[in-house]
Write a structure and sequence with these properties.
It holds the Pfam family YkuD. This protein is mainly beta and 237 residues long. Helix content is 10%, strand content 28%.
Length: 237
């Protein structure tokens, strides 16, 4: 392959992920316009990885504007689970995979105060704030204060100890409304840590702050997680 060809291909692939096309071809419809479902609202976040083995990709947040078009409001590099991505309905807890699918975003939380302009309900993290991941607990996949007796500390996240990641976060509605024990708990969109996540989606801190200032609960934003193609393509959700 001639020098520079790899860079050109990567650049073209990045454009396609965002719904654009190389300069020498016609513009493709924006990514949300090619999706099977966007959640019915007028805001959408997409988190796209090249394939299921990837631990990095791109998060883009979109607005559905008055003339019916989807317009990108911003984008940032994303990190996924250290185990890559897995189909949400069949995901297994403990695999460090990020679940693909289309999810609502119930509320935001953080160790640090909400960025000015945040409209989402924002729950402050306290010393006794835990997220229960214990399959034997009645509080499975729920925030608890304090940690209940039937939720073992070894099977829960003490939120305040994740000072970088949980500076700001949005709860992802994966396995949330009617939790299936063993499928997974504690999936968030949060600030980057040192590397790949344990199954969440993460972005740089400033990008997370921008997302929180942008998100409007009344516009029913959803998060679509998927790959650029294949059985877990983001366009299938």
């Amino acid at each position: 392959m001639p020098p520079g060809a790899v860079a050109v291909l990567v650049s073209a692939a990045s454009l396609l992920l965002l719904g654009a096309a190389p300069a020498d071809g016609p513009a493709a419809p924006p990514l949300p316009a090619r999706m099977a479902d966007t959640g019915g609202g007028t805001q959408l976040i997409t988190a796209v990885a090249p394939d299921t083995g990837s631990t990095t990709g791109t998060v883009t947040w979109w607005d559905h504007v008055g003339d019916g078009r989807w317009v990108a409001a911003g984008s940032a590099p994303a990190r996924f689970g250290s185990g890559g991505l897995a189909d949400g309905p069949t995901r297994v807890q403990g695999t460090s995979t990020t679940p693909t699918g289309l999810y609502d975003l119930p509320y935001a939380f953080g160790i640090e105060p909400a960025p000015p302009g945040t409209a989402y309900r924002y729950r402050p993290v306290r010393e006794d704030s835990w997220w229960c991941q214990d399959n034997a607990s009645r509080s499975y996949n729920r925030w608890t204060e304090p940690r209940p007796a039937d939720c073992r500390a070894a099977e829960a996240e003490h939120l305040v100890t994740y000072t970088a990641q949980y500076a700001h976060a949005l709860v992802v509605g994966f396995n949330y409304d009617r939790p299936v024990h063993g499928r997974g708990a504690g999936i968030f969109l949060h600030v980057d840590g040192r590397g790949a996540t344990a199954g969440c989606v993460s972005v740089p801190k400033e990008a997370m702050r921008r997302i929180l200032r942008w998100a409007e609960p009344g516009q029913r934003p959803h998060l679509a997680i998927g790959t650029a193609g294949g059985a877990t393509a983001v366009t299938r959700y």
